[in-house]
């Protein structure tokens, strides 16, 4: 059984033996005023920039400059099928088949488009179940879908809540909700990894449970993609959406992903919004043909996509392909396990990790709850060169990303935390 040890030497040894150590140098690491690397633990909000991104984006700028409209077919990576260059790698990252995955739009937009298809209320079955502390954008999207269909956005939302005095959600409570209300629930929509607690849910278990009661099941995997092994295909979920600017390092506001399970790939009955990019590629430019649905997730696209953003995603996915999500997760578990060990060794009553202890129920993020919601702790950490975030009401989120964070990052962070707590 592997045991972590205290002391900087141990961190150095772990870094020395880290098979992914070389990847850090492939990123731009933000620096402080004196030119020293900041300790960046915010990859759960915005991932860092791979050094190759500029090259990938520049290539498209150059091809646009030299080719103009011809670039759609003649660019080194032609723009018409550009999204296809991302599909296979993205499918690997989220554990799906290529036909189930597409990169398009942005996250909340994709969530809406998926709900257009998978939230089909009837007078008997019209409610949507979400986790009580869902990310606000998800909650607002769900509420607006309910209003759009003429339902009361308070009455028609069912919340899966933590028990009093607890932070994490329990499956037995979800089972109870479904036993009581399953027949009224049209859609279960859960954040695959909760943004606040870092709790990673068992997608398959939730999907099976939902399907048993006749509900559709979808996940927002913004905090899961590139962070945990989502295995979306095996989960059986009807749909999933995620962004690419967190663990997938594709840049602020970059395009998002969508997954639609293979069993819906050829559906002609699902309601959906369409555009010319959901139409058969072979006849798209004949322009006058009647609409002919593309099969698979691609059939949910609307518009020709922004190539510059896709180029940045391609740069990042090429690195993920090289490393492999399994290797990445292996390091992630070691790194976050080490982080947890060091924090717990502080034995400080002022802070408490609320993220699950079980590695299978979390990704790389640890959410540190601060007693009396003392926000000054976060400010002091920031002043000490640690980039992490504060989420209301009382949590500091830290996410060591295995591609660019080191064991020494984590060690130094906890040393600084210790000094601040002992001030
Ligand atoms: C779970 C979750 N949902 C939705 C969003 C909002 O995404 P966007 O602004 O990309 O639509 C985020 C992060 O910003 C998120 O973490
Ligand atoms: N896209 C952003 C733009 C501005 C500020 C934050 C974000 C985030 O992504 C927040 C993140 N979703 C979170 O889990 O808090």
From TrEMBL:
Its EC number is 3.7.1.3. GO terms for biological process: anthranilate metabolic process; L-kynurenine catabolic process; L-tryptophan catabolic process to kynurenine; NAD+ biosynthetic process; quinolinate biosynthetic process. InterPro entries: Kynureninase, PyrdxlP-dep_Trfase, PyrdxlP-dep_Trfase_major, PyrdxlP-dep_Trfase_small. One of its GO terms (molecular function) is kynureninase activity. Pyridoxal 5'-phosphate binds at residues 107-108, 135-138, 220, 223, 245, 276, 304. GO terms for cellular component: cytoplasm. Pathway: Amino-acid degradation; L-kynurenine degradation; L-alanine and anthranilate from L-kynurenine: step 1/1; Cofactor biosynthesis; NAD(+) biosynthesis; quinolinate from L-kynurenine: step 2/3. It is an enzyme of class 3 (hydrolase). The modification N6-(pyridoxal phosphate)lysine is found at residue 246. Keywords: Hydrolase, Pyridine nucleotide biosynthesis, Pyridoxal phosphate. It comes from the Bacteria. The keyword Hydrolase applies. It catalyses: L-kynurenine + H2O = anthranilate + L-alanine + H(+); 3-hydroxy-L-kynurenine + H2O = 3-hydroxyanthranilate + L-alanine + H(+). Its cofactor is pyridoxal 5'-phosphate. Gene3D superfamilies: Aspartate Aminotransferase, domain 1, Type I PLP-dependent aspartate aminotransferase-like (Major domain). Catalyzes the cleavage of L-kynurenine (L-Kyn) and L-3-hydroxykynurenine (L-3OHKyn) into anthranilic acid (AA) and 3-hydroxyanthranilic acid (3-OHAA), respectively. NCBIfam families: kynureninase (TIGR01814). Homodimer. Belongs to the kynureninase family. This is Kynureninase. It comes from Aestuariibaculum sediminum.
């Amino acid at each position: 059984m592997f045991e972590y040890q205290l002391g900087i030497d141990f961190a150095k040894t772990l870094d020395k033996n880290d098979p992914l150590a070389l990847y850090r140098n492939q990123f731009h690491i933000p620096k402080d005023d004196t030119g020293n690397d900041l300790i960046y633990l915010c990859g759960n909000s915005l991932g860092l920039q791979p050094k190759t991104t500029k090259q990938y984006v520049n290539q498209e700028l150059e091809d646009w400059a030299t080719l103009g409209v011809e670039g759609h077919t003649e660019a080194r990576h032609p723009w018409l099928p550009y999204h296809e260059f991302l599909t296979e790698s993205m499918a690997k990252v989220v554990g799906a088949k290529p036909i189930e995955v597409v990169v398009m739009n942005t996250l909340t937009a994709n969530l809406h488009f998926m709900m257009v298809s998978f939230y089909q209320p009837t007078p008997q079955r019209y409610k949507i179940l979400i986790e009580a502390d869902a990310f606000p954008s998800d909650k607002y999207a769900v509420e607006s879908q309910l209003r759009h269909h003429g339902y009361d956005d308070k009455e028609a939302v069912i919340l899966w809540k933590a028990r009093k005095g607890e932070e994490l959600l329990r499956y037995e409570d979800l089972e109870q909700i479904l036993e009581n209300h399953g027949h009224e629930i049209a859609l279960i929509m859960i954040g695959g990894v909760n943004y606040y607690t870092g709790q990673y849910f068992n997608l398959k278990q939730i999907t099976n449970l939902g399907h048993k009661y006749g509900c559709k099941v979808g996940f927002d995997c913004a905090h899961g993609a590139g962070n945990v092994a989502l295995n979306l295909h095996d989960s059986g979920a009807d749909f999933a959406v995620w962004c690419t600017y967190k663990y997938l390092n594709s840049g602020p506001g970059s395009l998002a992903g969508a997954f639609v399970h293979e069993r819906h790939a050829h559906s002609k009955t699902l309601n959906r919004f369409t555009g010319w990019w959901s139409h058969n590629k072979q006849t798209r430019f004949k322009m006058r043909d009647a609409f002919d649905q593309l099969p698979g997730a691609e059939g949910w696209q609307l518009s020709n996509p922004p190539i510059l953003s896709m180029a940045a995603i391609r740069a990042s996915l090429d690195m993920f392909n090289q490393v492999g999500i399994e290797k990445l997760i292996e390091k992630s578990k070691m790194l976050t396990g080490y982080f947890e060990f060091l924090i717990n060794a502080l034995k400080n009553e002022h802070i408490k990790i609320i993220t699950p202890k079980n590695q299978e129920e979390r990704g790389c993020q640890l959410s540190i709850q601060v007693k009396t919601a003392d926000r000054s702790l976060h400010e002091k950490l920031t002043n000490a060169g640690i980039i992490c975030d504060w989420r209301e009401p009382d949590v500091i989120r830290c996410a060591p990303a295995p591609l660019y964070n080191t064991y020494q990052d984590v060690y130094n962070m906890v040393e600084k935390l210790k000094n601040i707590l002992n001030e």
